[in-house]
Amino acid sequence: MSKLKVAVVGCGSIARYRHLPEYAANDQVELVAVCDIVEDRAKEMAEQYGAKAYTDYKTMLAEAEVDIVSVCTPNYLHASVSIDALNAGKHVLCEKPMATSEEDALAMIEAAKNNNKKLMIAHNQRFVPSHVKARELIENGEIGKIYGFRTAFGHPGPEGWSIDGKDSWFFRKEEAFIGAMGDLGVHKTDLMRYLLGEEFVEVGAFVESGAKENSTVDDNAVCVLKSESGIVGTLAASWAYQKEDNSTVIYGEKGVLRLEDDPEYSLIAHYRNGETKNYDLGKIQSNDEGGQNSTRVIENFVNSIVNDTEPPINGEEGMKSLKVVIAALKSSETKQIVQF
Q: Which segments constitute the Gfo/Idh/MocA-like oxidoreductase N-terminal domain (predicted)?
């Protein structure tokens, strides 16, 4: 079979560290086009990966022969670029959060259906080995009924790794829509939905600013979530942590699972009978690690196209995770518990 042709829109850090190298490593695809409004960035990535550089994605969609488009733009452009690419007959992999409103997310889903194309949202936490194993243990009933959880994703902030540093779009509300809750919190809403295998129905949240200067978005948030079966837990998302924390603890009737909560073992299961199982499944991918390992996002997306199967995180899944974040914002603004 001939290789699928790929274009990447946006040549910032997420494209450089994740999408571009992972497409380049995949023998089922060929990178043919890159696009960025900053011409030097587009040219640099084009030269590095043997692709053609564009500064206007609409021109790229009209001129370049591509099968796949990766959307790595600022958040406020996710929906419009994705919809235009889907309407142009391309499969789309979009970075998270998938959109800045439920209406835009629905429009993206509709565009994928109308054009019979794949739409996947790049929630890479689902593919972390410790998370995959934890879901397996939960599904197998190893820790029994789930009572509660706590999960966190925090680091010092995007200025440490964003291509624009302190001047990054991440800190501008008109471009980012939401700060740490959109950057990190949506990862964890998606992860907990995946691990628990059910939806959240209520949220109470404090979504605050104060850790970052010259920022118009939130940078520190704590939420209390309740699932449809009554599981309750906390979710923290922060750009104010000096050391990265990407941990999750799940409390069940038969035991406790600790995910990415120990420096040596990526998953630890403590059982009520006193038994402990340590799983060494490799370190979680981090911007601090240096040489990046595959997130498996591109691999899973490409396989869904090649095999004509549903992407593991389709538009509907992306929208459900986005809705939790939007509800958290509403809760923080109204000082009330929000049902959704």
A: 4-123
